[in-house]
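Moderator note: this is an archived Q&A kept for reference. The question asked for a predicted structure of one protein chain; the sequence and the answer are reproduced below.
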Amino acid sequence: MQGWFIRTGIGLWSRTTPLAAANWLAGQFFRVRNAKPKDWEMGIPEADEVLVTTFGMGLRRWGKGPKVMLVHGWEGRFSQFAILVPLLVDAGFEVISLDPPGHGLSDGQNSNPVKFGEAIHATAEALGPFFAIIGHSMGAVGTVLALCHGTSMQRVALVSMPASLEFMLRAVCRNVGFGASATEAFLRKIDKTVGVPALQLDARRLAAQRTEPVLIIHDRNDPQVPFSQAEEVAAAWPGARSIFSDRLGHTRILANTQICNGLIGFLKEQPDGKTPSARIIPARPDAQSHALTQV
């Protein structure tokens, strides 16, 4: 009931003074809030090295071998890769987890998709060459932006990626009860803050320009990002591979062993394609049973 009153109040405010309401929401939108790790994140191995770069980005490193960058999503944590990190190390990779701006060990209290992309590009330039990158949610968006600005990767994996920033922004406005004028003012304010119009940050449009081998992973019932957006990116990206799951959600998908083994299979595929990509290893009898589809 309290939430209904708050939403109604914000809705009335947005219709009375749309510009003031838009400026308030824009100020809240890119402010990063820290959340406590979930139980399934607690098993992540201790990093071999923890450092903050000269350009202010927090990094953690495990293992030795071809380098794989991990980039978590908005208000996420490196520990969300708790299942994937030891599998990558065992498979012979060096893993470097990046805290995007405003997150974890990195500088700042605010962030946005362009800052994610800039941090990825700077890290790749400073510590490369990297063999692959795995981005989750906003980390996947930042990955696509970094690739479009010259970051070089031989393999790319995008997990639970929102393809359309404009869609997400309009969804936020609907959720708080904004009227039409306040919504458009909010979009203009975000465009100005980010420095790039939201329409230009559409991964479906950018995907058509890419040539890197890509694996797109998404849950059909993702409560935050519609499954249709993953399908559209996969259709636009030449040669894209996909793994689609059921009932794994937006973030917990990273904790699924089958998904993680699919990622390992994709990374270890040989250029001649003789090794099957994204091979799904059957779940253990005690693991949760979820349907996975490969494309």
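Archived answer notes: The chain has ten helices and nine strands.
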